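In this supplementary section we document a worked example of the pipeline. Step one takes a protein sequence of length 494 as its only input; no multiple sequence alignment statistics are reported here. Step two produces a three-dimensional model, which step three serialises into structure tokens for compact storage. The input and output of this example are shown verbatim.
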Amino acid sequence: MKKNIYIPIIAVALGLSLSSCDKFLDEVPDARTELDSPEKVQELLATAYPNALYAEFCETMSDNAGDKVKLSPTSVLNNQMYAWETNNEYNTRDTPAHYFYAAYKAVATANYALEAVQALGGNSNLNYLKGEALVARAYTHFMLGLFWCKPFNPATAATDLGLPYTTKAEKKVFEIYHRISLKDYYDAIEKDLTEGLALIDNTKYNKPKFHFTKEAAHAFASRFYLVKGDWDKVIEHADAALGANPDNKLRDVKAQRSRTYAQQRLLYASADEPANALIVGASSVYSRNFAFNKYGLTLEKSEEILSADSHPFGLDWSYPVFGNEDYRNIPKFQEYFKYTNVSAGNGYPYNMAVLISYDEVFLNRLEAYVMKGEKAKFLTDLVVYLRKKTSQNIRPNFALDEATMNRLYQNKGTEFDPAYTLSTQQREWLQCVVDVRRAAFVFEGLRWIDNKRLGMKVVHKKGSETLELLKEDPRRELQIPEDAISNGITANPR
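The serialised model returned by step three reads:
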């Protein structure tokens, strides 16, 4: 039986894997009567975040990946993503289809929670539940749009394809859903985000970093408006997320270098790390694969991303790179095993991962400063950021001036072709921000988002072959999973 995109509430509540849901599709379940208290709705909302990671397929598609020529092919997924081919392995963790279905399952959860809030009376004392559900629904749709839709361009958004934006709890086993325009899709995301953010109440969370707090929602908003190119709102939401002392929310990479590999891995996606705005424990085996994939971070790519040549001031990065030439890695992912039947030894692996960090928010604001011409703020904040990522001490009174910045990045930034116009200085300074972001988030998948939204050409070497992905190549948008196409979702052009 074909899977419906929207996973029934019984499957959601039980946290079942996608492969085990089919037996529930013989009839439409209705478990709303079980959501008879705010506590139960809040418990359900803990699963309104995708139970899957996008990092593996995004890193492999991006220009962070190269060919480790001495290694044999490692997986179908790694091979196909490196060549930007379609992968339909929905029962395999870390694939595009796995993320797609997990994301729509999270959306279904948010919709059932919103319906339950209304059934409980929809009073203002339940606003905190509604707020989290709306922002979670906006976030998940947004991430789907980044991978399966074209980058947002106001000139073409009305005709570019978005995805189905679902706002109702599922009532049918097989429902037909249609793609809306990218403009309408982003409008729907913005509506949910704006309405939900105003309702969030941080005091309701026992483990706030696993949920959309006010700060995390503002952090997400800074990413959303960065992709839309609304620089004023990027700054507005970044200010709200970072607060008056943003330096305290930046990851202190230099101070953490003395920790062991295991200690750094545990801390990276921990609730104890001040830099983490939103974290998740998701079904994934990425921690086993990210250093060992044939197509991944080669020595050459590592030097390109993390050497002194990529540092704005030509200094040494503090990022701790472990492993030898073919297995270079940074300790960012910690795997755990969640038992579903302890006596039988059954269960599944999951990874702790950072969905949104304050480092990203800080860099979003830096980019907005470039686009707004806020030069003094940009120059000051760049130094603040680099102090915690640079091995050498940057003296306390060091001030970066415009002339020095122009000299450091002269004739750079030619790889960009975004939807908006860039001056020569904006191109050069934007190159700085993008280089810094690339170093900060290697292995996390954010480089692919930059590749897409900034119109970068991606080149992959595969043996003696050179593969190129140009700005208008339709393969930049992942193909809709084949089961979703069978259920009426329009395929992406190929």
